[in-house]
Write a structure and sequence with these properties.
The complex is a heterodimer of chains A (about 90) and B (about 110).
Chain A lengths: L43 E13 L10 E13 L6 E5 L1
Antiparallel strand pairs in A: 1-2
Chain B lengths: L7 E11 L7 E11 L3 E5 L2 H6 L6 E5 L1 E14 L7 E14 L7
Classes of the chains: A mainly beta (about 90), B mainly beta (about 110).
Chain lengths: ~90, ~110
């Protein structure tokens, strides 16, 4: 059954709302563009080749390892922001 | 096409506009897109980000993307072979800016 429409000006609480989304997956044909016909290709400057670097932090508590490991960029390239490895922020 | 330079600018390109998937009525039309470069950077994540992502997100990327700021509707006259011509409205970019990176909008 269709959930009742809610007046957002007066409603407080948590309820089901109906919405539409575009379902797609690899191996299925690209859907036909509908208005406003926007297609975006956004690549960002990010790490391409990396190396792990470890530094020793001063003044650590006795029960804390003083070593801190971070990724060092060897080479950068324009690419998609990969959410597996990267915190992708945009503003 | 010339490679876009520094910044995010209007960029004309030619498209074929069809009234339906079969293209019963169609026309070539120049529309504006936003093409170019905006600033983006990537750096080692803060310790709080590492903790929150279970040490998976060891890179943080901060970026803006070249996108359409204002759009404009234009009327396009389509030729339909033997039958009478049709007019439809399509969008074209009016101004561009570096803004939030969005996925495609369908």
């Amino acid at each position: 059954p269709k959930p009742p429409s809610i007046n957002l000006q007066t409603f407080t609480g948590c309820a089901v709302r109906e919405f539409t989304f575009l379902a797609k997956k690899p191996g299925c044909k690209k859907p036909v563009l509908k208005p406003p016909y926007i297609e975006a290709h956004h690549r960002v400057c990010t790490y391409n080749e990396t190396k792990l670097e470890t530094v020793k932090l001063p003044n650590c508590a006795a029960n804390v390892s003083p070593f801190y490991t971070y990724l060092k960029a060897i080479r950068c390239d324009c690419g998609m922001c990969l959410t597996e490895t990267t915190e992708c922020e945009t503003a | 096409d010339a490679t876009p330079g520094v910044g995010c600018h209007l960029h004309p390109f030619s498209v074929t506009i069809k009234s339906d998937p079969r293209g019963s009525c169609r026309s070539r039309q120049t529309v504006q897109a936003c093409v170019g470069y905006c600033e983006s950077s990537a750096f080692p994540s803060k310790y709080s980000v590492l903790l929150a992502s279970n040490f998976k997100h060891n890179i943080t990327s901060v970026s803006q993307c070249c996108t359409i700021a204002k759009m404009q509707k234009i009327k396009v006259h389509l030729r339909c072979g033997a039958t009478r011509p049709e007019t439809i409205e399509v969008f074209t970019a009016k101004t561009c800016q570096c803004d939030v990176c969005r996925l495609s909008r369908y």
